[in-house]
Amino acid sequence: MKKIESVEFWKLILACCRTRSLTRAAIEMDIGLPAASKAISAFEREEGLRILDRRSRPAGFTENLDRLYPEAKRIVAAWGAAGKSIESIREENAILRKPFRTVRISIPVNARNPEVYSGLLGYARGNNLRLSFSGESGIARLRRREVEIAQGGAVPEKSPDLIKEFARLNGFFLFASKEFERRYGIPKEISDLERVPIAIRTPRNPSFSRKFENGKDVYFLPDGPNLVYADADSCRMLLLRGEALSVDVGIGSVLPEVRSGDVFPILPDWFRRPNFTHVCCHAASASDETIRTLMRIMRETLRASESDSWLHWRREFGMPDSQIVAYLRKSDELLSKLET
Hints:
Layout: H1 7-19, H2 22-29, H3 33-47, E1 52-53, E2 60-61, H4 63-92, E3 101-106, H5 114-125, E4 129-134, H6 138-143, E5 149-152, E6 162-170, E7 175-177, H7 178-184, E8 198-200, E9 211-214, E10 217-220, E11 227-229, H8 232-240, E12 245-246, H9 255-260, E13 263-265, E14 275-282, H10 289-304, H11 310-316, H12 325-339
Parallel strand pairs: 3-4, 3-5, 8-11, 8-12
Antiparallel strand pairs: 1-2, 5-14, 6-14, 7-13, 9-10
Helix pairs in contact: 1-2, 1-4, 2-3, 5-10
């Protein structure tokens, strides 16, 4: 079998992209360095593309590695999705029903809170439940009945088919990294954003916005070649590697880097409109005690947690609440309705 047909080879390519080292990639893949080198060499020979730059010791990578990254990610993701589909079909075709219930929960990649997972799993262990977690497009998937619970930050105001419970106010910072600062410098004025790459979610994302506010002043990120559309994982990778600023990286996904100072917010007087995070289920689940209990765990944990709280970190960064007082007032109104 040619290497291009091997999922393990494409996983190796992804590991090389993440680690920037064939040695570290081999360790991550739990294979020997000779085997990793042999796989790369076989691909180079079969496809006529050089991946390793052997002019230095240890060998580096050619630009072809990064050019292969999107395809490697797509192939590995498709392989994983196929495996999940097969597993789902296998479960549905099983003759004997499993003596436990499965509840499917969607939590956005950019808003994953470890405390939420701990609370949900603790409840599941004591109540004979299997939890199945997934990431993006949670509200749409909830409407298609592909999940039972979805956490979302852009739930339409009028959603009669859903039960939505407000959890907290959430937003994103305009983040830079030390590596970005070394490459490009740090923008001092909002207009400086025109000259640097910025990673942002695609317009298909419900929370997409290029609009920034500073009092009565409004600025839109220029819709040009420096605006890089990416998924949540890619936004984080581009940020950490210093390839771009990022608007759409949740604080929870870069906490170690924020605490070490390797990632930091810029232009603190400007902010993008926050959203109101809700935990939702389908209206048909209104009387389902298990679903409502799991929703309550998610809602109360998010409300109490400060580790990935946008408001908490705004204050840590010295950003005034006066900028977002209208959103805070709306947040208080939603909480008061929930508690009465």
